[in-house]
Specification:
By secondary structure, the chain is α+β, with helices and mostly antiparallel strands. The protein has helices at about 1-15, 180-205, 220-235, 240-274, and strands spanning about 20-30, 35-40, 50, 55-65, 80-85, 90-95, 105-110, 125-130, 140-145. Pfam families: Ribophorin_II_C.
Amino acid sequence: MFVIFSWLLLAASVQAAKLTLQSPRFTISSSNATTLRTETFTTTQKPEPLTLSSSDTFKLTFQITEEGEGGKGVQPHQTFLRFYDGVSGEEGIQPIRVTPGGKAKFELNMARPPASIPPTTTDPLKVTLILGSFVHEPVKYELFDLYIPASQPPPQHADEVFFHTRPVIEHTFHPEQKLPPTMISAVFACLVLSPWVVLLGLWAKVSPSVPHLFSPSVVPFTTLLGAFELLLFWYWVELNLGQVLLYGSLLAVPTVFAGKQALAKTGEWRQGRS
């Protein structure tokens, strides 16, 4: 029982242990290996913002230990540097390799920046160290602000313009058609019906015998002619041209046969009269 209790106390003490940084140091050098700036800083007070040019090299070294005097070096399970742009919200995560003794080194060559660096502008990147461990409390340290050259815009593809928002297509509709006055409509309706008046007048002149007008051989032909007139009126108010041609072709067949029969009967009537 005592052994189990001792192991629980040991596990609680290990779990309560915190990770800290020892001797964090950065160095900025130019392309010809000239040291431009080097400084050892603490996690409680950030150094002045760092500025890198397109040819500079940045090196960061530190050791991860357990908090307290004589803390031994610790290798966390996860160690990351986070680069965050507080204005645009862009961020990038860069893993860092740590030795079993807790020593770590990170190098950033601006001539060949890693893909983990987010797109940059003239705003600084906030650099944060994130440590994760199964046996220690996770910890996060705000290290410094870093100014690096603004990212170059990506080359524009020839078809890129077709994937942007296009202008809104606006349709211009003509005003609704105005109906003519009732008098004008009546006049033209009379003009449309006038051929029937002429036809009936000529028919009465040619055939004085009215009963022949309503004979079984003439009525179908007259009815089909009236159907053509109704079809044209229907076309005027509702149908389209294709429908008129279809219905007209269907009416044409019986009209031809009815017309032939009417002409034949009329010829017989003329011969019998003579």
